[in-house]
Each structure stands twice: as C-alpha cells, then as structure tokens.
Amino acid sequence: MATSLQESPETRTPLLDDVVDGAVDYKGHQVRRSTSGGWRSASFIIGVEVAESFAYYGISSNLITFLTGPLGESTVTAAENVNIWSGTAQLLPLLGAFVADSFLGRYRTIIVASLLYILGLGLLTMSALLTSSELQIVLFFFSLYLVAVAQGGHKPCVQAFGADQFDGQDPVECKAKSSFFNWWYFGMNAGILLTFSVLVYIQDNLSWGLGFGIPCVVMVLALISFVAGTRTYRYSIKGEEESPFVRIGKVFVAALRNRRTSPSAIASEEESLGTLPDQSSEQFKFLNKALLAPDNLKKNGKVCTIAEVEEAKAVLRLFPIWATCLAYSIVCAQSSTFFTKQGATMDRTIVPGFDIPAASLQSFICLAIMMIIPIYDRILVPMARAFTREPSGITMLQRIGTGMFFSIMTMVVAALVEMKRLQTAKDYDLVDLPSATIPMSIWWLVPQYFLYGLADVFTIVGLQEFFYDQVPNELRSIGLALYLSILGVGNFLSSFLVSVIEEVTSWAGHTSWFSDNLNLAHLDYFYWFLAALSAVGLLAYMYFAKSYIYNRASTL
C-alpha cells in the first residue's frame, strides 16, 4: 500500500478513459486527454489563424486598388487578375493538403508554409517600394504567387490540426469540435477586421510598403506563437496501412475492370461477404463491382474490401455537394472586386477631412460574422438541439443551404442598391464624370455586406465542418482543401463570366456592363444574373442534399 502511494504521476498507468486513441504527443508517446489538446491547444492555433487572415486579406482585400493605382491596370484587367490569383490561392490547398497528409504531416507543413509566407510578404514589401518598372511588376507578381503557395500549405493544415485537438469519439469533445469550427471562423474574421480597419487605411493613405510590411512582421510573431504550443498539441498517428489515395483509387480501377460483370455475380459476392442491403450499399452500386477480382488476385488477397468500397463511395458523395456550391462561391468573389469599386464612387466621408477607404467597408462582413457566431453558437444551437436532438442543432447540410439562401438575398440587395446609385448619378448629371463622387452615402452598401457575412456564418462554417468530417481520417487536410477549392474555382468562374460578359456586352461599340466608368456600366444587371444563378444552384443543392448519406453514424 505504501509503495503504491509513493508512485510518481509519470509512472502511474493512465486511466483508460483519459487516453486519446489515434493520437500521440510531440515525442510520439501515448497522449492523455487531461494534459493535451482541447481548447488550450486550439487557442494557439486560432491565434495563428488570426495572424494568417490578417496577412492574407491584407493583400487580397485591397489588391484591386493597388493594381488599378500604382500598377495602372484597367478595372476589368485588375478584377480578372484578382480573381485568378484568389482562385489559384484557394486551389493550391489541394496540393498543400496532399503533401501534409501523404508526407510531412500537418505540423511540419504549417512550419514550412509559414516560412514561405514570411519570405513572400518580405518580397512583396520590396516590390511596393520600387518605382514603376518592369522589375517591380515581375517581383510583385512573383511574391504574390509565392504567398498563394504558402497559403496553400497553411490554410487547410491549420484548421485540420486545430480540429485534431478534439476527440470526436468523446461526447464532450465532440460538441467542442463542432464549436471549434465556429470560433476558428470567428478568429479568422477578427484578423480580417484588423485588416479592414487598420491596414487598408495605411495602404491607401500612408504607404503600400508599410501596408505589406506589417503583415510580414505579424506572420513572424504567429510562427513563434505556434511553435510555443508544440508541447500541448495532439498529433495524429499515421497508420501503416495503404495510403488512402491508393485505397480509393484501387476501388475505381477494380470497378472499371469489372464493368461488364453481371449483376447476379455482384449479388452473389455481396451475399458471400455479408454486405447488408442498406441505403449506403445501394448508392453508387457500380462501385460494388470492385468486390470482385480475377482468381489469381484472390489467391494473393488483392481484392477490395467492403470497407474500401464504402470509403470510395463516401468520397464520391461529396462531389455533387461540392459542385452545387460553386454558384455560392461566385457570389463570394464579388466582395473584394466590384463591391469595392462600387464603393469607391460614392460619398465616403465619415467626418470632415476623413474618407473611409472603400475596401474598409468589407469590415462589415467581419462585424456581422463576429456578432452572429456567438449568438449562433451559444443561443441558436442549444435551442435547435432541444428540438432536433442533433449535437450541432441542425445538420451540416441544412446549415450550408441556409447560407446559400442568404447569398441570393445579398445579390438582390446589391442589385437594388446599384440601381439607386446609377439613378443618383443620372439625377446629378454625373454619368460622364467617372472621377466625380456620387452624392450617395457609402453606408448604402452596408446591408449587402451584412447579408454576405450572415451567409458566410452558415455556408462557409458548414462547408468547413462538412468536408472535415465526411472524408477518411487520413484525408482531413484534403477535405478542408476541397472546401477551399470551391472558393478557388468560384473565383475562376467569376473571372470567366466577367470576360465573357465583357465581350458580349461591349460588342459593336455598346457600353460594357463593366465599363471603367461605373456610371455607364451595369453592375446591377450582373448582380441580378448572379442572384438567378445562385437560385438555380440552391435548387440543385437541395436535390442532392436530400439524398446524401452521412459517412459516420456519429456525424453531427
């Protein structure tokens, strides 16, 4: 008895319910729930996200102003460049997530990406200090895309690594994980708000060099903070089994090889394997052909298992949801392009002698998000939980669809406000004076920014949680990269639409919808078009969401 009392905490065997399965500490040892992960570790990671958002949006939010100002590009060219860069930055997470999930791991990928971020921001600062020249343009775009590469490794891994700090098999931590996605997005928007309220003003009124240099310093501090939390983190264990990419690919190859197999042969194989005739096994039934294999492969045990087939089906189910959310992502592309140019023509005076930068109005998106998330997380979710018995109040797909509806309303309001702005320009004979300030307060734009933020709280956070939760455990960085790729493809689609509409509407000497003189342009027509496109997207989304089968029985 005396001996047992003298045992040190380090030598005692941890309680079974205190051990977190599938995770280790930074030394590779078994990790305890009470001394690792949770909100303590997540707070370090959310802090890093605040800094990264401040840096990334310190570039993207006002990029169109730098391109049309110091670099002298036209509105259409600048909007296309912004969309192409933003699209690239949001597609590159697919590459970064692949590297993390297959080779480096999330922690190391975040470290490497942070170093690239700092280098890119440093070079961007140098380019802004140069006078207008070919060297400035080359250095600027090189550093801009280096930041995009860094963001590609940083964004999906930081969020996935943060969610890894919560054990989805523990009832308490499962609820905390759902809450994490809300507060992670809250932190992200806190960083963006700092950009819009401070950094944009510095860029417009003091110095572009200083405006790009401050984010560089902030990223250095963020890297130091992230490393400081190393001892508290939980690190996912990478199993010895086949790569999930290989497993999933093998299923599709086997199904293709057996494409001519008769249904009766598949039914016999399913029966012999004990496949249950449930809803999941009936969906994408053609993949069940992967359960069959030539005799020589069966002898060697090289045949797809039921679990592998179901895993492939789970990934395939994501793509209709992914595709039907693209209309939403096209709407997302407008806040940092045409919304900003729209605001630049309006009366931006707050007090005599101080004009708010047009890009700073995007801060209302962040304010809306930061105001709504606590209400959603602390009030709406518990209320909904009492009726639905869902740990997260409503399902992830219901949350996404709700935000898509609000995005339609955003475009409707934006179109109505733009009609009012154009009419005001006519009433005051300012149509042919593109540099003149329209006597209409910039505060007219606040409702469309607020609705945009409201839509984000539902759709963006819902997409983050959905794509993290519905992919195999080893592919969670890839899952979050898939969510980001929706926004990336949306930017490319927006750029494509702008180019096509520009060509069509300027045909035979007509005034383009996107004329450099916005008083002659018709952004209102474009916004109505996007509202209609979003409505079609929502209908398609509802059709696929209704038949979607969640991957895990314990899914929120």
Architecture overview:
The protein is mostly helical and 556 residues long. It is 67% helix and 4% strand. It contains 21 helices and seven strands. The protein has helices at 2-5, 38-60, 63-68, 75-91, 93-104, 106-129, 134-163, 171-205, 208-228, 244-257, 263-273, 279-282, 295-299, 306-324, 326-332, 338-344, 363-388, 396-427, 446-469, 476-505, 523-546, and strands spanning 19-24, 30-32, 235-236, 346-347, 349-351, 354-355, 438-441. The strands form three sheets. A three-stranded antiparallel β-sheet has the order 2-1-3, with no helix packed on it. A two-stranded parallel ribbon has the order 4-7. Strands 5-6 form a two-stranded antiparallel sheet. A hairpin with a 5-residue loop joins strand 1 and strand 2 (30-32). Helix 2 runs antiparallel to helix 7 (134-163). The longest helix is centred in the middle third of the chain and has 35 residues, at 171-205. The protein is globular. Residues 1-15 and 295-300 have low confidence and may be disordered.
Primary descriptors:
single chain, 556 residues, mainly alpha, three-stranded antiparallel sheet, two-stranded parallel ribbon, 21 helices, 7 strands, disordered N terminus
Task: Lay out the secondary structure.
Elements: H1 2-5, E1 19-24, E2 30-32, H2 38-60, H3 63-68, H4 75-91, H5 93-104, H6 106-129, H7 134-163, H8 171-205, H9 208-228, E3 235-236, H10 244-257, H11 263-273, H12 279-282, H13 295-299, H14 306-324, H15 326-332, H16 338-344, E4 346-347, E5 349-351, E6 354-355, H17 363-388, H18 396-427, E7 438-441, H19 446-469, H20 476-505, H21 523-546
Helix pairs in contact: 2-7, 2-8, 2-9, 4-7, 4-20, 5-6, 5-7, 5-20, 6-7, 6-9, 7-20, 8-9, 8-17, 8-19, 10-14, 14-21, 15-20, 15-21, 17-19, 18-19, 18-21, 19-20
